[in-house]
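question for whoever is on the cluster today: can someone run the full assembly for these? two chains, 336 residues total. i dont have access anymore since they changed the login thing
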Amino acid sequence: MALGKKCRSSLLKRSVSFGGGEGFVRALGRKRIEIPDAEDSYSGLSPKTPLKKQRSECFAFDFDFEGESSKLEALPQEILIKILCGVEHEDLKQLFHVSKAIREATLIAKQFHFAYSTPRKIRAFRTKIDFSESNDELEEIEAPNAPRQQRLHRALPSQKKLEEISVNLLDSLEEGMRRGLFMDEDDE
Amino acid sequence: MSSKKMITLKSLDGRTLEVEEAVAKKSPMIKKMIEDEDVMEDEVDDEDNDNDNVVHLRKVTYKVLDKVMEYCKRHVNDDEKVVNEDELKAWDQDFIVKTDKSTLCNLLLAAYYLNIQSLLLLLSKNAFHKTGEDKTMEDMRILLACQQ
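^ ran it for u. tokens below:
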């Protein structure tokens, strides 16, 4: 298969050798590519079948190879996320293509952005707090593709339940009246 | 007058750095190593006096270790109430600014290895430039290129 050269700046030149000599797995962007054990170095590769499982396995190895595996990704995801929280939301998109581990961490960091801070693109209020004016302006500004919040929806009570509730209330109301709790109510 | 106990830290490249025990103990990992050694001492004869209080840190280079200890020295009194927060923050920012990017990356890894939470947090927050979109990928590359 012809191996073309892409002009992508290869951020990642990671070669992990499996059992010495079987071949190199080079990760560029999202594709895992296996290339035969060759001497020349590639700046870019055309995609072959992604080898997802191998990729996740290789990080279980101890990184004391001669290879240039990234120490950053050896860090636990928790810390990767903390680091990525320092990145502006718009810029996070760029980091998706770096590697799988970073993409996962980026996705989570992205959610944090919206959970705790206002996204930069929307300027809710042009002046300090001016509700009357800002409503029109809000509609003009496009949404920054905020991830959907997963809020728990409470289902509205069904008709049957509603009836039950209403009945119960009325019952207790009547009882209360009987007992004279509602002094000012008119007895019917 | 209490003499402060000094601990010798030995880096990856063999150079040693001497710090006060309290400073070294900012790292829970070093703390444990010291305390384990103390336990050992009682059981073994005092033959190896040369090896007293030497903590070998095989994953940290001298340059990075020096920086880490600089941080720890400044923050050794953090638990006490006499802390001027603004001053401390200013010092922290200055610390970050003074250090070059690749050292900062190594510092991050070291802080993780030595388990110094506050340093880790500080470095995480400052890993990426906040200004300018182009900087993000640059920062990422530096971080990824970082080897210890």
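summary bc i know u wont read the tokens: Chain A touches chain B at residues 11-12, 68, 70-73, 75, 79, 82-88, 90-91, 94-95, 98, 102 (CB under 8 Å). The two ends of chain A are 91 Å apart (CA to CA).
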